[in-house]
Amino acid sequence: QVQLVESGGGLVQPGGSLRLSCAASGSFISLKAMAWYRPAPGKQRELVAAATTSGIYYADSVKGRFTISRDNAKNTVYLQMNSLKPEDTAVYYCNVDAENSLGSMIGYWGQGTQVTVSS
Fold first, then answer.
1. pLDDT by residue (tens digit) across 67-90?
2. What is the percent of the chain with per-residue pLDDT over 70, rounded to a whole number?
3. In the beta sheet, which residues pair with residue 37?
4. CA-CA distance, 36 to 112, in Å (whole number)?
5. DSSP at 88
6. Cβ–Cβ contacts within 10 Å for residue 91, how many?
């Protein structure tokens, strides 16, 4: 089992910044992909940004404004959000793909952290 603890959400004015954190703990061999999602119209959740062993991915809507990074020593992924817009308002969910001792990959979700962009 893997536990994810998210933090860093809050209320910010348009143009402001926030930094989300997601720390993973528990029993796993490695964390392959670490990502952030948020709800989107017509979708359950949309991928906002991902940091994988293959590279970095951003949704078009956040390119140039958001930066994802990970500290593998701390099993933590961050999402630096700059130039925030009201349409960025959402609950942001952390997701990780963890490899267990059997070599299987299992996905886990955090509880979500609320980001509200409003004047």
1. 999 999 999 999 999 999 999 999
2. 100
3. 47, 93
4. 10
5. G
6. 16
